[in-house]
Design brief:
The chain contains 3 helices and 4 strands, in the order ββαββαα. With 75 residues, the chain is an alpha+beta fold. A 4-stranded antiparallel beta sheet has the order 1-2-3-4, covered by helices on one side.
């Protein structure tokens, strides 16, 4: 679990899901490398994203908030 705040001051709580959701499995396979699914929730918005394993230790806050912003833009 990680908590991160974006540039707008929104706090996001991100948790790794036990498996990649069915609707994202084709995308995960197409990426060609190992990925895990995370859910990031701000209370008002929710994002499910595919990220490399170890994301909680290896991604800095800027990288994690960028992933969140990219997925919000697609919604």
């Amino acid at each position: 679990m990680r908590t991160v705040s974006d540039k707008q001051g929104t706090t996001w709580i991100c948790l790794e899901l036990p498996e990649v959701p069915v609707e994202q499995r084709d995308v995960a396979v197409a990426l060609g490398t190992a990925h895990v699914a995370i859910e990031c929730n701000s209370g008002a918005d929710r994002v499910i994203a595919l990220v490399p394993p170890g994301w909680d230790d290896h991604m800095d806050d800027a990288s994690l908030t960028q992933v969140i912003r990219e997925h919000l833009a697609r919604q």
